[in-house]
């Protein structure tokens, strides 16, 4: 449509005003894609979903894998945050933050100590890959854990809460008779009531996979210790595990008769690590070493999901390479190239995040660690980039392990820069805002949920993973993100 040139002075004036208004509207800057608007509430920080949703920004389409390659065997469970369990009472809530950070610090120290010990053994030529690969050593520093599933143990199945741990290679439950047992939410499992329970002999191949084992009355015994002094000891057995309507027979589990620790009501642990004795490793061909999870957000009433099988591999997910560390086969390493703030990559050398020839450094995705850790120099560069773009926000003093905090009391909405992970394969993962700024008290203090690592090891924690669908395809060596959000 074409407009005629206005003939009268009034029409000309109106026309000029219209053009000026249009030009001003076109010139007005829109919301930059490298910032997020957030609503601030007294006890939590939330993304304003009317403006922008948690996003996955990827630059490479060639990594996408379709579901046609996978069969449809799938087991699906609800995934609960520990604060949702019935045994967690309201009076404990005010202490939840300090307890979580304490657990987290112990977990990180344990991972670092474990991998440093491995590196030292390699360097003095005393290390053997086979010995470490078959050892049943958990990444759990303290059996309390963060996320739980409900499964049936035995025949008939007895429902039990189990901690999930992507850094552990064992499945175990407390068992009667209990020489020493901690308090759990459900009755302790009694093998005498299960028709499918079968002890494992000392000479069996399954028993041979254990590192810390001995033999008693012809039965294979196990022992797993954790970084805080918690432990479980008992006999190894084959038992049926029920998930929904699906029964999985002859799963090797530890039947713990002597247990100690702060296990927060869970009956035991469901190891999801990459080793042969983990639940994933034992399922083997039944699921092809594939599983997917969505960690439930802390501040919602919803539940997350945990799915096993190739049918759980989502169409449209973007995949990055899974890196195997033969000296720590339980853990899932990924290739991180760098981090970004406000759409700009922070100048950190890529080799900072690379796995060394001795099995140290590298980047681990871990469900048991809460706060993402970066090597100190990398963390400081990232933190400084973030604070440079948030100098308009009132600062607060450091809290616990966090040195970058803000006083958002009284704020309704704020604007913060995006935080992104740049992967070696090319994709870029942009985090939801509540995955990097978290409330640490009820007074409006929010902190950047990253911390320096005590070593060269980087860990992508569960706070940063929350709300994002994450898939592990161990058989083909990929980790997928999206396309769904929890």
Features:
486 residues; alpha+beta; Cathepsin D, subunit A, domain 1; six-stranded mixed beta barrel; four-stranded antiparallel sheet; 7 helices; 16% helix; globular; disordered N terminus; PEPTIDASE_A1; protease
Structural write-up:
This protein has 486 residues and is an alpha+beta fold. The chain folds into two domains: 35-67 and 317-485, Acid Proteases (Cathepsin D, subunit A, domain 1, Beta Barrel); 75-306, Acid Proteases (Cathepsin D, subunit A, domain 1, Beta Barrel), CATH 2.40.70.10. It contains seven helices and 31 strands. It has helices at 9-27, 96-123, 129-134, 205-208, 279-283, 376-388, 462-465, and strands spanning 35-40, 45-47, 75-81, 147-153, 158-165, 171-174, 198-199, 213-216, 219-225, 231-243, 246-260, 268-271, 290-294, 304-308, 318-323, 332-334, 336-341, 344-345, 363-365, 372-375, 395-396, 405-407, 413-417, 419-423, 428-430, 437-439, 445-448, 450-453, 458-460, 468-473, 478-485. The chain has a six-stranded mixed barrel with strand order 4-5-12-6-11-10. It has a four-stranded antiparallel sheet with strand order 18-17-24-25, with helices on one face. Strands 21-22-27-26 form a four-stranded antiparallel sheet, with no helix packed on it. The radius of gyration is 25 Å and the shape is globular. 47% of the residues are buried. Mean pLDDT is 78; it is low at 1-7, 10-33, 42-72, 88-94 and 119-144.
């Amino acid at each position: 449509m074409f407009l005629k040139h206005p003939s009268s002075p009034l029409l000309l004036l109106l026309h000029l005003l219209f053009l000026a208004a249009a030009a001003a509207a076109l010139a007005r800057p829109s919301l930059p894609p490298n910032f997020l608007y957030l609503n601030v509430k007294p006890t939590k920080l939330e993304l304003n979903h009317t403006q922008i949703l948690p996003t996955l920004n990827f630059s490479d389409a060639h990594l996408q894998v379709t579901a046609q390659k996978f069969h449809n065997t799938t087991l699906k469970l609800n995934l609960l945050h520990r604060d949702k369990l019935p045994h967690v009472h309201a009076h404990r809530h005010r202490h939840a933050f300090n307890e979580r950070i304490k657990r987290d610090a112990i977990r990180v120290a344990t991972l670092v100590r474990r991998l440093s010990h491995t590196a030292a053994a390699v360097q003095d030529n005393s290390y053997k890959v086979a010995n470490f690969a078959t050892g049943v050593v958990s990444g759990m520093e303290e059996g309390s854990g963060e996320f739980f599933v409900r499964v049936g143990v035995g025949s008939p199945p007895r429902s039990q809460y189990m901690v999930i741990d992507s850094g552990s290679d064992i499945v175990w439950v407390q068992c009667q008779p209990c020489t020493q047992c901690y308090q759990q939410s459900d009755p302790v499992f009694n093998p005498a009531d299960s028709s499918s329970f079968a002890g494992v002999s000392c000479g069996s191949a399954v028993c041979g996979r254990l590192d810390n084992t001995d033999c008693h009355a012809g039965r294979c015994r196990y022992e797993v210790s954790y970084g805080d002094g918690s432990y479980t000891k008992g006999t190894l057995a084959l038992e049926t595990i029920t998930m929904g309507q699906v029964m999985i027979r002859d799963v090797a589990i530890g039947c713990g008769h002597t247990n100690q620790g702060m296990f927060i009501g869970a009956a035991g642990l469901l190891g999801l690590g990459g080793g042969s004795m983990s639940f994933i490793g034992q399922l083997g061909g039944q699921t092809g070493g594939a599983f997917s999870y969505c960690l439930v957000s802390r501040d919602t009433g919803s539940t997350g999901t945990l799915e096993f099988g190739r049918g759980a591999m989502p169409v449209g997910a973007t995949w990055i390479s899974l890196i195997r560390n033969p000296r720590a086969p339980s853990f899932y390493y990924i290739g991180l190239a760098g981090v970004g703030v406000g759409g700009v990559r922070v100048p950190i050398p890529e080799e900072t995040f690379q796995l060394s020839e001795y099995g140290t450094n590298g980047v681990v995705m871990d469900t048991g660690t809460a706060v993402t850790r970066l090597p100190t120099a990398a963390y400081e560069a990232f933190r400084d980039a973030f604070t440079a773009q948030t100098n308009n926000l009132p600062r607060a003093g450091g809290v616990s392990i966090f040195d970058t905090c803000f006083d958002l009391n009284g704020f309704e909405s704020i604007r913060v820069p995006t935080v992104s992970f740049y992967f070696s394969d090319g994709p870029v993962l942009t985090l939801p805002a509540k995955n990097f700024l978290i409330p640490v008290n009820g007074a409006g203090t929010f902190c950047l949920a990253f911390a320096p690592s005590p070593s060269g090891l980087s860990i992508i924690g569960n706070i940063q993973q929350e709300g994002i669908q994450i898939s592990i395809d161990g058989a083909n060596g990929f980790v997928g993100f999206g396309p769904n959000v929890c």
